[in-house]
Amino acid sequence: MSDTAPLVKIEGLHKSYGGVVKVLQGLDIEMKAGDRVVVIGPSGGGKSTLLRVLMGLEQIDRGAITFGGKPYISANGNGKTSIDAKVRRSIGMVFQHYTLFPHLDVIGNLILAPVKVRGEKKADAIARAMALLTRFGLAQKANAYPAQLSGGQKQRVAIARALMLDPKLMLFDEVTSALDPELVSEVEQVILQLAQQQMPMVIVTHDMWFAKHIASRVIFCAGGVVVEDGPPEQVLGAPKEERTREFIERVFHIQH
Q1: 41-57 pLDDT, tens per residue?
Q2: Does residue 5 lie within any of the structural domains?
Q3: Which residues neighbour 151 within 8 Å (Cβ) at sequence distance 6 or greater?
């Protein structure tokens, strides 16, 4: 990867459903390797869709995304999206609802992709998995099944599973919104730990405290475009755009 190229460059991204519901309408974002980008905005503003597009889970109508200076995703104009599968494998994503395999225990969930997809030796994968579980305070849950875990434990396992594939970028989509309030901090602490280790990440969240403490940049999206982009103290503390101010005031009023 070139030192000067942005880690992610999104240009003119358009995404609609059925050609009618326009979710992204010309999104432009650049992200450096050290960035921790938090995306905030009203429901339906395109935040989760942006992450799903970045992960290669959604087709796009127009636009292009490069990753580390190399072409990653582009639309060829006839409704088909081209995705470089090799680049996609260097991106990890954690969803709101865990998506763990219920029939596998925790260790089985963690080693499945490295062993089946990458051909890693099972013993090596288990050793790496146990190291991650230990780091996240979950070593004693290695042989438990997802149904035996709390929501916070499931989400920490989901993060560990994504890290097993050594991603160069992590995407987090509302990972604490389905959790009871007392479980939120244990998941946020794990993500803060990753931030301290300089893991590049894009995080969609409604938790403004978390956004303020983890972001190097905050992007406010509404109507499928970037309305405001800047450091957290500016976007959250003294937003320049009226649309951002209205949103921040409403969210802080709800959270207090």
Answers
A1: 998 888 999 999 999 99
A2: no
A3: 98, 178, 179, 180, 183
User: What burial class does residue 64 get, using C-beta atoms within 10 Å of its C-beta: 0-12 exposed, 13-18 middle, 19+ buried?
Assistant: middle
On whether residue 29 sits in a domain, the answer given is no
pTM of the model: 0.90
Is 247:42 a contact under the CB 8 Å cutoff? yes
pLDDT value, residue 2: 46
Average pLDDT over residues 20-26: 84
The phi and psi torsions of 248 (rounded to 5 degrees) equal: -60, -45
In a domain, 159, yes or no: yes
In a domain, 110, yes or no: yes
**What does the chain come to in residues?**
256
20 Cβ neighbours under 8 A, 6+ residues apart: none
Beta carbons within 8 Å of 254's beta carbon, 6+ residues apart: none
As a whole number of angstroms, the distance between CA 50 and CA 219 comes to: 12
CA 125/CA 121 separation, integer angstroms? 6
- Number of domains composing the chain: 1
Residue pLDDT, tens place only, 118-153? 899 999 999 999 999 999 999 999 999 999 999 899
Q: Give the confidence band of 105 by pLDDT, cuts at 50, 70, 90.
A: very high
Its sign, for the CA torsion 113, 87, 189, 220, is negative
Q: 169-173 and 91-94 as β-strands: parallel, antiparallel, unpaired?
A: parallel
Q: Is the pLDDT of residue 181 over 60?
A: yes
- Cα dihedral 206/210/212/216 (nearest 10): -100
Quote the domain boundaries for residue 123. 100-167
